[in-house]
């Protein structure tokens, strides 16, 4: 089973948090598409070697490199996307690469933290909800995960979520504050899918 | 042509603005579904949650629309609006009568070269794949009329 991990991935600590949860799910046999990791596979050792030869990257990277570290350098402006051989970040590129992940996913995991559901995340919830209406068999559902204390304290009345988004989530899955429960539901969907 | 009008409708002036846009759209032969004007009367002993009622009420409008106008002003696109943009995008993929999404955008914080962080790339990409971003209602109406005549051709 493939899932798409949606969330506000704009700060290093949120990205790290998402990657950590993704690692836990991968250990359980779930394939996870993580948007901020999507360019990692496009970075080739040949390209890194070339940048080492040019003195742009340290010699140690010849033996092995962490794509996340390189993407961090891009975000910090220390390295350009062109140097790494990555496509330009236009809205269309962002949409196309992420949509590919969403389109091939059997479920969505959405991190709902923030003063509202991040707009990109909300849009992805909508796209997947729409796909679910057309293909109930391969599109299992959307699970919401919230750790934001402003939402968690409103657990009994819908976690303080936008009513429409909450409706879309209620209709297609559940919202949890405990990641073990998130994993449990995803594994249940995985079993159903494999039957 | 029926359209769905998505936007943040949480304050009196937001609802008022959207309603005024709707009047102008109707004068131009376009029938907008406006969520805050189209709420079904409550059914006694309705077993559905408030959220599901909201979803199903608005979903009727989205499913029945040939186009969407999305007001995307704000610090970021309102999450309900962003979710509706996504749903419309998905439905478009299998329904050729759905023409596209017109975003209405004038917020200085999310404008190119404005003082804020810009629009979310994924949401903007989704809109640009299916339609256009307009800075005023007249341009949006012109685009909708173009789609309307395509639909009638």
Number of domains of chain A: 1
- Category by helix and strand content of chain B: alpha/beta
Main sheet: strands, sense, barrel of chain B: 5 strands, parallel
Low-pLDDT regions of chain B? none
Q: Mean pLDDT of chain A, as a whole number?
A: 95
CATH topology of chain A: Rossmann fold
Structural class, from secondary structure content of chain A? Answer: alpha/beta
Number of helices of chain B: 5
Named at the architecture level, the CATH assignment of chain A is: 3-Layer(aba) Sandwich
Structure, described:
The complex is a heterodimer of chains A (195) and B (153). Chain A has helices at residues 12-27, 45-53, 67-75, 91-103, 119-134, 149-152, 163-172, 179-194, and strands at residues 2-6, 31-33, 107-111, 141-145, 175-176. Chain A is α/β, with parallel strands linked by helices and 195 residues long. Chain A has a single domain (2-38, 90-194), classed as Rossmann fold. The longest helix of chain A has 16 residues, at 12-27. Chain A is elongated, with a radius of gyration of 18 Å. Chain A starts with a strand and ends with a helix. Chain B has five helices and five strands; from the N terminus they run E-H-E-H-E-H-E-H-E-H. The model of chain B has no long low-confidence stretch (mean pLDDT 95). In chain B, helix 3 runs parallel beside helix 4 (121-130). Chain B is of the alpha/beta class and 153 residues long. Chain B is globular and about 50 Å long. Chain A binds chain B through residues 89-96, 98, 116-131, 133-134, 158, 161-171, and chain B through 49-56, 58, 76-91, 94, 119-126, 128-129.
